[in-house]
Amino acid sequence: MQVIIGLGNPGSRYTDTWHNLGYISVDRFAQKHGLLFKAGKGKFYAASGFFNSKKILLVKPTTYMNLSGEAVSEVINYFETGLEDILVIYDDINLPLGTIRMRKSGTAGGHNGIKSIISSLDTLDFARLRIGFKTDQISSILANNPAVLPDLVLAKIPSVLHEDILVSIDKSVDALEYFLDNGIDRAMNTYNEKNLT
Question: Which of 37, 100, 112, 165 has the most other CB atoms within 10 Å of its CB?
Answer without folding.
Answer: 100
